[in-house]
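pasting for the record
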Amino acid sequence: MKQLLILSFAFLAVMGTHAQKADKSAYLMVYHKDADHSLHMALSYDSYTWTALNDDKPVINGDTIAVQHGIRDPHIFRGPDGGFYLAMTDLNIWGSTAAAEREGHKNVKVYRNTEWERDGKKYGWGNNRGLVLMKSFDLIHWTRTNLDFSALTCATGVTDMHGNPVPWSEVGCVWAPETVYDYEAGHLLVHFTTRMKTGVNMIYYIYMNDDFTQMLSEPKLLFEAPLNANGVPSYGVIDSDIIHVGNTYHLFYVSHEKTATVKHATASVITGPYQMDDKYDDGETQGHEAPNCWQRQGEDKWVVMFDNYSRHPHNFGFVETTDFQKFNMIGYFDADESPMKRTNFSEQKHAAVAPLTVKEAKQLEKYWAKKK
């Protein structure tokens, strides 16, 4: 790796202690909202009923941590050191007045005169350059690092129609980052969606240091759609999610072969190669994205949660599995006969879930009750 612009900050002070070794029996959900492009959190003590912290107001304002003054696609991961690793897309899709009002959002803050940060014809919808990475041991005091992938001078592995290498300065997007731990490599691994200019979306990965402040490797390809006759992926894939169960790594992702659809693939090594699972079916017929797989603690039961962006009003869908062979649809938030409930929030987008202890959850509730 040759160059990368990295801005590191102490976001408040890191005062927390390492997480307790007690059994995890509470859950934390992180999500964003289009209305404020900020980080929101919700808690559950049974993994079925969820209550937002801070009355569903932001717990961290996106305009205070992101280059584009807004974040999207937050993902929370609990590392082997007990720390919480928060990875987010640095992107504000309502940065201009015209873009916000077109989607019915009034009175938003305006940060630029153009719809996108860069030329939309050249770099595509929602173009951005980087990620926001944060670490905490108590979910209150954080350190922060901003990554700018357009500053990289290493090879992208992508060539244009004339066979010329496309540099990272021409990156079209860096979306939906997620963090896992590669026990064989002994490092944190962050995987994310990217493309060059308006090309095909693929999944890349990098290794990060334990402090979540420095890249340890150049970005490499993790997963792409099958290649066509021209050696180019035949469609785009986005929103990767990886969970390790037994001896298998399960990759959930969104295929844009037709309507945006959540798909499943497996591998014996975290970096692949991944074998597509043609049998996976989550029962959702409309466009959906942002899969996140998490375990119900104390049970051999895993949930795949996804974002039903095509439904009105906006909602999440949930399926359960015990063997990653059969996935049973259990409905949507607050739907009749669905066990999944919200008590005080709505319009959540692109969420992720991590385990907590009851003590940690109570401390977090107490903190935000005092802030309120």
